TrEMBL record:
It comes from Lactobacillus helveticus (strain DPC 4571). Its EC number is 6.3.4.21. Residues 5-129 form the Nicotinate phosphoribosyltransferase N-terminal domain. This is Nicotinate phosphoribosyltransferase. Transiently phosphorylated on a His residue during the reaction cycle. Phosphorylation strongly increases the affinity for substrates and increases the rate of nicotinate D-ribonucleotide production. Dephosphorylation regenerates the low-affinity form of the enzyme, leading to product release. One of its GO terms (biological process) is NAD+ biosynthetic process via the salvage pathway. GO terms for molecular function: nicotinamide phosphoribosyltransferase activity; nicotinate phosphoribosyltransferase activity. InterPro entries: Aldolase_TIM (IPR013785), N/Namide_PRibTrfase (IPR041525), NAPRTase_C (IPR041619), NAPRTase_N (IPR040727), Nic_PRibTrfase-Fam (IPR007229), Nic_PRibTrfase_pncB (IPR006405), Nicotinate_pribotase-like_C (IPR036068). Pfam families: NAPRTase, NAPRTase_C, NAPRTase_N. Catalyzes the first step in the biosynthesis of NAD from nicotinic acid, the ATP-dependent synthesis of beta-nicotinate D-ribonucleotide from nicotinate and 5-phospho-D-ribose 1-phosphate. Residues 356-466 form the Nicotinate phosphoribosyltransferase C-terminal domain. Pathway: Cofactor biosynthesis; NAD(+) biosynthesis; nicotinate D-ribonucleotide from nicotinate: step 1/1.
Length: 479
């Protein structure tokens, strides 16, 4: 499906207006960032860059697109002719996919002709907001699982095929080990996993017959769903019989899955029964509307669970289903010069950061493996060894700090210029590995699932002064 038309109508209305009132090659720059992390977390795990680059690189309108736009009777023929021949001329600087992203930091900046950059807003935000949301939720769940495998099981509950498929990819970036979604497995080279539904067992005269039939077909990957009737009285006893037969035939039984009831109580009883039967190698998988807090609770209760299958509460991020990423102009070209732009609001947190920017992750020289803060600077600034910085958190009680004895790693890099894309990592598990490494660098207290500590994001004095200057200029005009 072509996504060029995945654009709010007002974007086309503004682009049509730009075409009729401003130079067609007038350049603009926009930032993509968020203000608040979902579930009151301290950071967002960024995802979606691969698809953003792919879509923006190949951006164009078909004859059918132009015919539809013409039929709306809202746009000039000259503008539609312009769109018919348009191809991407934009440049994107972005963080590496899988980088932990803090509030107000640009995940990417996009520069190019104002008309084109404006038309890309909805598409870019749609991809970034959804995939970063799911990657972040997956991180929360896999973090709670304490190293146990987490399988993404949510395709049937996702909000549509695209959300299911790209959501599965984002879940892998966030730490999941596999997906039940075969299309995602095919498209992104992700391991696929799954066992059976209750309908399999109900299709046979009894549970034992159903288990034996399954084991005959899949003797080396037999994972049995034991809660169709009664986990303790029939499910586990019947599974034990089948597993013992498999072992006698030289096969290695795999696991049981519990999908309902008191998971802790049932898992403990099942573990005891399996061990007593000489089946200590058989794993226990838990599913049934789990999320990070339930997983954490189960493990706190010492439930002997080896794997988790997580569906609806992962793929929909049901506890916090929206990431409010925004797309805001930061600079506009005027007579060959870039002019910083700002959006001002009565709400301090909605005042934007003007100008072309770079984001740096700061590490102590004495502890180069652990980050202690980020700083947003103007792109043409050179960070000195000693910096006066301003906390970007509008609620900070002490906002001015002095930073010394650090090393700084820039996070924004050019990834696309017109139709030429820079090499980026596309292997989903390589991105997952990178994400784990980057998260490991953050302070432990910022990774708590409940009441995480604030990870500081600072502004350089030069950037903060530019923001104040533009606000003051607006106030003068208003007076």
């Amino acid at each position: 499906m072509s996504l060029e038309m995945l654009t709010d109508l007002y974007e086309f209305s503004m682009a049509n207006g730009y075409y009729q009132t401003l130079p067609h090659d007038k350049q603009a720059r926009f930032d993509v960032f968020y203000r608040n992390a979902p579930d009151e977390d301290s950071f967002v795990l960024s995802a979606g860059l691969m698809q953003i680059i792919e879509e923006v690189k190949n951006w164009h309108f078909t004859k059918e697109d132009i015919d539809y736009l013409r039929a709306l009777n809202k746009f000039s023929d000259e503008f539609l002719t312009f769109l018919k021949d348009a191809k991407n001329k934009c440049t994107i600087n972005a963080m590496t996919e899988g980088t932990p992203l803090l509030p107000r930091e640009p995940f990417l900046t996009i520069s190019g002709p104002l008309i084109e950059v404006q038309l890309l807003e909805t598409l870019v935000l749609n991809i970034f907001n959804h995939q970063s949301l799911i990657a972040t939720k997956a991180w929360q769940i896999t973090h709670a699982a304490q190293g146990r495998a987490v399988m993404e099981f949510g395709a049937r509950r996702a909000q549509g095929p695209d959300a299911a498929t790209y959501g599965a990819r984002a879940a892998i970036i966030g730490g999941c080990t596999s997906t039940s979604n075969v299309l995602a497995g095919q498209k992104f080279n992700i391991p696929v996993a799954g066992t059976m539904a209750h309908a399999w067992i109900e299709s046979f005269p009894d549970e034992l017959t159903a288990f034996k039939a399954w084991a005959k077909i899949y003797p080396d990957t037999a994972s049995l769903l034991v809660d169709t009737y009664d986990v303790v009285k029939s499910g586990v006893p019947n599974a034990i019989k089948v597993f013992q037969e498999l072992k006698a035939q030289g096969h290695r039984p795999l696991s049981i899955r519990i999908d309902s009831g008191d998971i802790t109580r049932l898992a403990k009883k099942a573990r005891q029964m399996l061990d007593d039967a000489g089946l200590s190698e058989v794993k226990i998988t838990a599913s049934n509307a789990l999320d990070a807090h339930i997983v954490k609770s189960l493990l706190n209760e010492e439930a002997p669970i080896d794997n988790f299958g997580i569906g609806e509460r992962l793929i929909t991020s049901s506890s916090s289903p929206v990431l409010g990423g925004v797309y805001k102009m930061s600079a506009l070209e005027n007579k060959g010069q870039w002019v910083p732009k700002i959006k001002i609001s009565n709400s301090r947190e909605k005042i934007t950061l003007p100008g072309n920017k770079q984001v740096y992750r700061l590490y102590s020289r004495n502890d180069p493996k652990h980050a202690f803060a980020d700083i947003i600077a103007l792109a043409d600034e050179k960070l000195r060894d000693k910096i006066t910085a301003i906390d970007s958190d509008v609620h900070a009680t002490s906002d001015v700090v002095t930073l010394t004895d650090f090393t700084a790693r820039p996070l924004l890099h050019q990834v696309l210029a017109g139709q030429k894309a820079a090499p980026i990592e596309t292997d989903t598990f390589a991105i997952q590995k990178y994400a784990k490494e980057q998260i490991a660098e953050l302070p432990e207290e910022t990774k708590r699932l409940v009441n995480p500590d604030h990870y500081p994001v600072y502004l350089t004095k030069k950037l903060a002064d530019l923001q104040k200057k533009l606000i003051a200029e607006y106030e003068e005009v208003k007076l």
